[in-house]
Amino acid sequence: MKLWIDDLRPAPDGYVWCHSVYRAIKEIQIRENEIKEFGMIENIDPITLIDIDHDAGDYAQYGGDYIRLLDWLEATGRNYPIRIHSMNPVGVANMRAIIQKNGWKEVF
């Protein structure tokens, strides 16, 4: 499963679209709990990519800008491949610093 974290741009085919940090966290937790409970069975896809914007716009009230998802991943010891699709150069640099600090895989 691929997560698309963005307030405005629609998710490409094959992605689950999360508008807010809170929704993205919930999707990750649901998927992880299903895998823990049922194991790797064919109808439960593991998370293979988090494709993330920086600015959450109106959805920032539900967990902040999307960089907060990276903060949560870091605080909880999670590690998923990340692709940044933000047009905010400062936001991209800040997100990339978190990715590099944790040794996570950034997908280009």
Comma- or semicolon-separated keywords:
108 residues, alpha/beta, 4-stranded parallel β-sheet, 38% helix, 14% strand, globular
Identify the quaternary structure here: single chain
Q: Helicity range of the residues?
A: 25-40%
Q: Give the biggest beta sheet.
A: 4 strands, parallel
Q: So how many helices?
A: 3
The mean pLDDT is 95
Q: Which parts are unreliable, with pLDDT below 50 for 5 consecutive residues or more? A: none
Q: Summarize the helix and strand pattern as letters.
A: EEHEHEH
The number of distinct β-strands equals: 4
Overall structural class, as computed from helix and strand content, comes to alpha/beta
Description:
With 108 residues, the protein is an alpha/beta fold. The protein has one domain (2-102). The chain has 3 helices and 4 strands; from the N terminus they run ββαβαβα. Strands 2-1-3-4 form a 4-stranded parallel sheet. Helix 2 links the parallel strand 3 and strand 4 (82-84). Helix 2 runs parallel beside helix 3 (89-102). The longest helix is centred in the N-terminal third of the chain and has 18 residues, at 21-38. It starts with a strand and ends in a 6-residue tail after the last helix.
